[in-house]
Design goal:
This protein has three helices and no strands. The chain is an all-alpha fold. It has one domain. The mean pLDDT is 88.
Length: 61
């Protein structure tokens, strides 16, 4: 990714990733979004995380 977008900063801290994600969600939807986001960052391996991310994408766009 760095070769394509060399000036991009990658956010590595999960807490900051979540906070940054919530900036784009209406306050009335944040609890529901967080409930749907948890399986992504709590997954034990990459495969279930990707599946949860796909489900999040389907629901929230």
């Amino acid at each position: 990714m760095a070769s394509i977008f060399p000036q991009t900063e990658v956010q590595l801290c999960v807490v900051h990733q979540i906070r940054n994600s919530l900036r784009y969600i209406a306050s009335k939807d944040q609890k529901a979004f967080m409930a749907d986001l948890k399986p992504v960052y709590r997954a034990d391996t990459k495969a279930p995380a990707e599946l949860a991310l796909d489900e999040l994408e389907t629901k929230w766009g």
